[in-house]
Design brief:
The chain is of the alpha/beta class and 319 residues long. The chain has 2 domains: 182 residues, Rossmann fold (3-Layer(aba) Sandwich), CATH 3.40.50; 115 residues, Rossmann fold (3-Layer(aba) Sandwich), CATH 3.40.50. Helices cover 43% and strands 18% of the residues. It is an enzyme of class 2 (transferase).
Length: 319
């Protein structure tokens, strides 16, 4: 292994820069040349590769986003585009590729490995929707961003004795809503895995008011969506002023938490070690606080198991 390249793909996530830093510095420590690829698979196809030195990753561990930038790439979805990408890597003498991203990014790495490129993936997505690993990079930071927003909304909701509906990201995975709902003291958590009963939701809000609650907080995952319309319906039925807030892409930004910085650093180091060991088509994860590497085909095939116990806890604590 003489040259390793690294790219970030798909949606950005806090901790990506920390992972890039770990890949670069670990590679250089092992005497391996490192190439950065700008703008993900799009930049790879266009030959946007450059050599990275230690100073290139100085002062980035605390920064959100990705210094390598990221972009979607329709051309890479074609066989011709992937062959072109593999050819570019070979022209630059790249022996191994580290891909930092989510499910779609991993599938790209999987296909490149079948074209003779040694690949390893690091899970960088705020959604926490990759079942083979307990945590993905950016998830913890996003939870703290949501909690900060919840704390601020609670102040104004209490002042006006309102219902606050907060819609968070996560696509079809409800982890952001569920975790932040528990940590933020929400009265209800609405997620794709469980759905919800509108009448029961209104009943919960009205019972809370009878108990003397000054406000109600409802967390909604974007996989459910429709928060603005839901707010109108809740206000119409309960008679309580209701406002919806869609947090949107603010959840992707910000300085990564200590947890995400540590996780990114550990995963970045292990990714380089895996390539040095001669493995390919692997993905890095964490289970029981141990960094793991799994076959990418097996990892992508792992069925997602919803944490029923965690949802039960959210219901117990919201009463």
């Amino acid at each position: 292994m003489k040259t390793i390249a690294v790219l970030t793909s798909g949606g950005d996530a806090p901790g990506m820069n920390a992972a890039i830093r770990a890949v670069v510095r670990t590679s250089l420590d092992k005497g391996i040349k490192v190439m950065g690829i700008k703008r993900g698979y799009s930049g790879l196809i266009n030959g946007e590769l450059f050599e990275m030195k230690r100073q290139d990753v100085s002062d980035i561990i605390q920064r959100g986003g990705t210094v390598l930038r990221t972009a979607r790439c329709a051309e890479f979805l074609t066989e011709e585009g992937r062959k072109k990408a593999a050819g570019v890597l070979k022209v630059f003498g790249v022996d191994g590729l580290v891909v930092i991203g989510g499910n779609g990014s991993f599938m790209g790495a999987q296909k490149l490995s079948k074209l003779g490129i040694s690949t390893v993936g690091i899970p960088g997505t705020i959604d926490n929707d990759l079942p083979y690993t307990e945590y993905t990079l950016g998830f913890d930071t996003t939870l703290n961003t949501v909690l900060d927003a919840i704390n601020k909304l609670r102040d104004t909701s209490t002042s006006h004795e309102r219902v606050s509906i907060v819609e968070v990201m996560g696509r079809d995975c409800g982890d952001i809503a569920l975790y932040s709902g528990i940590a933020g003291g929400a009265e209800s958590v609405i997620i794709p895995e469980k759905g919800y009963d509108f009448d029961e939701l209104c009943k919960t809000i009205l019972e809370g008011k009878l108990k003397g609650k000054m406000h109600s907080l409802i967390l909604v995952a974007e996989g459910i969506g429709g928060s603005m319309e839901l707010a109108k319906q809740v206000e119409s039925v309960t008679g309580i002023e209701t406002r919806a807030t869609i947090l949107g892409h603010i959840q992707r930004g910000g300085s990564p938490s200590a947890f995400d910085r540590m996780l990114a650093s550990r995963m970045g180091v292990r990714a380089v070690e895996v390539l040095i060991e001669g493995k390919t088509s692997r993905v890095i994860g964490i289970r029981e606080n141990k960094i793991t590497d799994d076959d990418i085909d097996e990892a992508l095939a792992v069925p997602r198991k919803f944490d029923e116990r965690l949802y039960e806890i959210s219901e117990i604590l919201s009463r």
